[in-house]
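Lab notebook, bench 4. Continuing the backlog of folding jobs that were queued last week. Each job is logged with the same field layout so the records can be merged later without manual cleanup. Today's entry covers Trafficking protein particle complex subunit, a 233-residue chain. Filled in by technician R.K.

JOB TYPE: sequence-to-structure
TARGET: Trafficking protein particle complex subunit
LENGTH: 233
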Amino acid sequence: MSQPRPPNGPSGAGTNPSVVLPKETSSSHNTTLRYPSNGKTIYHRHLSRSKTAELSQASFAYLFSEMVTYAQRRVTGIQDLEKRLNTQGHPLGLKLLDLLLIREPPRSQSRPLNIITLLHFIKINLWQHLFGRQADRLEKSSDPNALDEYMIIDNEPLVNAYVSVPKEMSQLNCAAFVAGIIEGVCDGAVFPAKVTAHSVGSKEEGEMWPGRTVFLVKFQDEVLEREALIGKG
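JOB STATUS: finished
OUTPUT FIELD FOLLOWS
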């Protein structure tokens, strides 16, 4: 006489005991984020709370050098590396524009309405926020065929101070990251532009400012057309 077969367990093996699985937690609790005990996050802070806060240069140097190393491992050449650094800086510029304007006094809390106002905002407000000082100079191209080009000059870019560039990459300028920030500010202010960083300096100036960098700001044609219409008005 055959004996009855035991019921199959969850694994399908007739002789294994059934396994009781724990109930799945709800998706709202399935997260890796950690919140403070008081329930407040960075989004609860007032925007002006960290207005005077500063980051040590040692911390910045470490974070930025690691960021450059991370980008270098994923590119094949100097141009690709500078392009990647530019791309990383662009979203910061978009956010910094709104943050700096919100922190301005109510009377001067308005977006730049022309090219010169925007460039002075970058030279003064943006540089002061990022580096604790203004950029050294602001110039317009004297070339009649390049009326859409402006230059912001920094004699000692902080981003280049702590990055050791090998000889085979001597043409690399890590200030492309700052160029991306400038480009983000221009795009956020609806002055679309292409910004690139260039190492310059004559023989005389090179001894005094070996890391001197020019940020070349080239605005799109639509910006110049709008500027001309405003000038006529």
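OBSERVATION: The longest strand covers residues 193-199.
SIGNED: R.K.
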